[in-house]
Amino acid sequence: MKIKQNLHIHSQHSCDSACATLADIQKEMLSCGMSEFGISDHLHTHYNLCDIQGARNDFLCAERPASFHFGIEVSSVSKWECDQIAAGNYERKGDDPVYGLRFVDGPANSPAQIGITAEEIKELGIEYVIAGVHWPLYSKADREHAWEDYFNQMLAMVKNPLVTILAHPWDSVEHAAGGWFQSRDVKDIDYGAIAEVPQEYNDKLMNALLEYDKAAEINLGVLNSLRLPEVCRKKYWTMLAQWREAGVKFTFGTDQHAAHNNPAVLAASELLLDFYGFEDENIKYLFN
Ligand SMILES: [Zn+2]
Ligand SMILES: [Zn+2]
User: Fold this and answer.
1) What are residue 129's DSSP bridge partners?
2) Which ligand sits nearest to residue 131's alpha carbon?
3) How far is the CA of 261 from the centre of ligand 2 (A)?
4) DSSP state of 280
5) What is the DSSP string of 141-154?
6) Using CA atoms, how far apart are residues 236 and 171, in angstroms rounded to an integer?
7) Local structure of residue 111 (DSSP, 8 states)
8) Which-ligand-closest: CA of 157?
9) How many angstroms separate the CA atoms of 116 and 280, rounded?
């Protein structure tokens, strides 16, 4: 199948290493035949709101086709860290508070939420919200706790009425399960935590996506990631195919952080989509 949508692209306004200009994004997405595409820069907590305001100003100034949209990628964050950051009650440590508060041990029982309000989404002209789990919320670093933590966060994102798309399901659970967030050492990445995600969690997520009518993301960056063992990529594709059989709809995103789109990733993904039985009718087009 032909990929005609790319809703997950980071521009140079994203707080991480993203560096693409809007002009290049537009030129490259039109040249590969996207019928709808959009930028989705990161917002973790209110601390990053200025980045989204910058992206919005740039977007409004650009001459652009109707197929170019303005979205956002929000992280699941804990209410506790949002409150701490809003009150200025934190220490600048590691890269805290850019990615919320990751270098302190917060309470594990604070609810997962997103760092932007309905009013701000409206004011900024945000047309869709991709929500991703990017880290554990202060749970213990082992598989059982990481799975439970990520599952609960994903469920909170799916249930959140402001969220349109669940980003890259389970991505980074391998870092949580192995203790990477504590040590920041690559030896503490447990790839088996992806390969062995219990079916029960995936069934519950599938049912929640259907119940709340949310799209799951086919994240082409994660699914083509060379750092993942093949067994993990297969696990992801198998899970997505199971969800599709139950009627879940999907959106595409390359999750581009680099200066330029990589057309080879799209070409390889189209072959994999055919192999796993995906068709255009499984895709949720938001705008056409
Ligand atoms: Zn993400
Ligand atoms: Zn992203």
Assistant:
1) 72
2) 1
3) 14
4) G
5) SSHHHHHHHHHHHH
6) 9
7) P
8) 1
9) 32
Tokens 């055919």 appear where?
A: 274
The sheet carrying 165-166 orders its strands as: 5-9, 36-43, 68-75, 128-132, 165-166, 215-219, 250-253
Which domains occur in the chain, in start order? 5-282 (3.20.20.140)
Measured between alpha carbons, how far is 149 from 230 in angstroms, rounded to an integer? 24
- What whole-number distance in Å separates Cα of residue 265 and Cα of residue 221? 8
What is the per-residue pLDDT across 89-116, written as a single tens digit (0 to 9) for each? 999 999 999 999 999 999 999 999 999 9
Residue 271's H or E segment, with its range, is helix 263-275
Looking at residue 288, its pLDDT comes to 82
CA of 40 to the centre of ligand 1 (A): 10
Distance 73 CA to ligand 1 centre (A): 7
- In degrees, rounded to 5, the angle at the alpha carbon of residue 135 between the alpha carbons of residues 105 and 146 is 85
Tell me, yes or no, if the pTM score tops 0.90: yes
Task: Specify the amino acid at residue 55.
Answer: A
H-run or E-run covering 27: helix 22-31
Ligand approaching nearest to the C-alpha of 10 = 2
